[in-house]
Amino acid sequence: MPLLEVENVVKTFRRGGGPAVRAVDDVSFSIEAGQTMTLIGESGSGKSTVARIVLGLERPDSGRVVFDGQDLTAMSPRDLRAKRSTLTAVFQEPYESLNPRMKVESIVGEPLKLFDRTLSKAARRDRVVASLEEVGLGAGILRRYPGDLSGGQQQRLGIARALILSPRLIVLDEPTSSLDLTVRATILTLLKELQLRHSLTYLFISHDIATVRYFSTNTGVMYLGRFVERGPTEEIIDDPRHPYSVALLSSTLSTDPGEMKPARPLTGDAPSPTTRFPGCPLVGRCPVQVDECATRPVPMTSITPTRSAACIRVRPGTAGPERNEAPS
Asked: What are φ and ψ of residue 238, in 5° steps?
């Protein structure tokens, strides 16, 4: 049984008397223990909202989040708070997620105060030091403030805080996007090592395709709150099936300076997030659309046992939507 199952989750936001924005629209996926599921897509596609729902920071309008066999969406706030000790997060901007007025010892030790009040002060400090050492820091920074640390050290501090309660799943929300390339590589290596050492499961949000290839087991491509494609990371990156996935991945620069990717741009602008679509939300931008795309509901359809896409021109066993060529 998967460690995490997200089933048909919907989340709508409404500001004042304005129209509703469906930030997450019938999203489903699962993650096996010890694996990494990545969500990719443009800003505003719903990735972070999914992460907040998994963490219990947002309640879905409908659907379920089942973690370790328990339905988190059916729990009382008190029970959910207790369960959060096994669900933690590392955020995009390390300095913004750390209280600048708290010292390192208090930042890392705070979760222990909340979830394990039986520990003595000395025992709590020992746990904090052990967690810091595991991420490449140590007791020498216990009395320092976040502002005294470099960006890479701040993110290691955030990881130490996420580890302190021995979680089973960690949400990684763009954990390296604010770091330079060298530091980014060391943080990713650290996260991989920790995953192997502790059998951690990751839900990873990223725009960096090179990072996704290195780091991820499976990937879901999101557009306007929906999954348009889902499957093994290598297969999606090397052979995207949905026209949006093709456009998204063709827009990224390769780490190989000799590799030239053919551009596969979409036409027009993204629609308003308040727009509701009877058919495919990519209508009007898609280079391979046909008339029925505008009116026919497009559910996720299995292509292979491990791949699925939401495109009426993708068929089981095919290599893509007619190889993404415009229809004649």
From this structure: -80, -25
